[in-house]
Amino acid sequence: MKKILLVNTNTESAPYPVPPVGLCLLASTLCKTHEVRIFDGLAAPAGSLPRVVRSFAPDYVGVGIRNIDSIVLDKPVYYIDDIHEKFFVPIKRETDAPIIAGGSGFSVFPFELMERSGADYGIVGEGEAALAHLVAALDRGDAAAGIPGVIKGNTVPEAFVGQSPSLDMDTVPFSEVDRWIDFSPYARRGAYPIQTKRGCGHRCVYCTYPCIEGVSYRRRSPEAVADEIEQAAGRLGDVTFEFVDSTFNDPPGHAEAICRAIIGKNITVRLRTMGINPAHASRELFDLMLAAGFSQIDCTPDSGSSTMLANLRKNFTLPQLETTADLIRRANIPTMWFFVFGGPGETEKTIAETFAFVDKWVNPEDMVYMMAGLRIYPNTELHRIALREGIVGPLDPLLRPVFYLSPLVRKDRIDALMQEAAETRHNCVPASQSAPSPAMMQRAMEMRAQGNAREPMFRTLLRVRREMMKDGTLE
What we know:
7-stranded parallel beta sheet; alpha/beta; Rossmann fold
């Protein structure tokens, strides 16, 4: 049986470490035909990759690239150079086995990353079927040409991009993350990732999800989702499960059905999710989420201005957003809110409208995360807008981060307005200040030891922030 080494290159641990669910799904798919091992760059000892490659002697090496950069204009971190030096270079030094690159970040910049990494093959989009077909062809000694989603070298027709086969999601095995990696670093600070579907039918101007996963929702059955949670909880005990879909409550009814399936299991679990969509929020949804075990959610409207919601091509209106915020506050579900300033058409007036929304509708105990500038990705509407406005040129490379900022408001004014919000509202935190200081963390841990340990850490940190603002010790 031939051997495949899958390598997780994502070593970022802020705000919390993210388990490599994609690689684990690949491992669970490929283990029927190949001997599979995952090298987790986040948890493995520094410098241990060469030894692992030598001892395992893989026939193929799959390298997952999740993040290109931090997408934060005011605190930029570019990951690709480190990924090349810490992963691709040692692998090539130790083995002649074909290197196959993939992952969500790779799928956005496949040709640039093929050239930068020197990988032999690349997989664009979801990899379960494509990687299985590719290694089967290589096992037989066949050429890889024509396999949907697979590219070779840096000379490939663009028509291949986005043609990865659409899977029946209920044929994909459970990720069994804890089977393939040491889950302990993630159990302490992160969460066990669960997918309920792939694809996104929305048209937000900046988003790459439709490019990576397609524009049609492909759902897992609620029973399969609940079964995976029950089985993982049985193995791991007290662990948080995070739904990592682009939006949790899309399409309508799917999230409710999943909650009912979990409730029907009569299991006690702790759940959280990103991407609550205001277009489909309801009291029934939040009641079911609370009953299922949700302890935290994220809501990412990006703006509280009706003008900006339209400009960003959100699928919901300001009244729907206000209703959602009211429902969240009444349910008292701890929530992290995310807003980004500087999108197409942003002005000081629309920024003020967002802060007016925050003041009226957001629970003061919930965090408001503020960013300036939108990362420009190829094949998005934002890229086309930036081209029309002359912010970027047709040949400008985008692999290194380039950001869009509205020409109608200066960057220093956006910064000043965000700083004013941070100084007058304890729950408003700019992205550049989101990492807590050692003093804040120490005080937060003291608070949690005194009886608040079950609340999300961000709520504890906001309590500390409010204290430090009052006594003048906030840096």
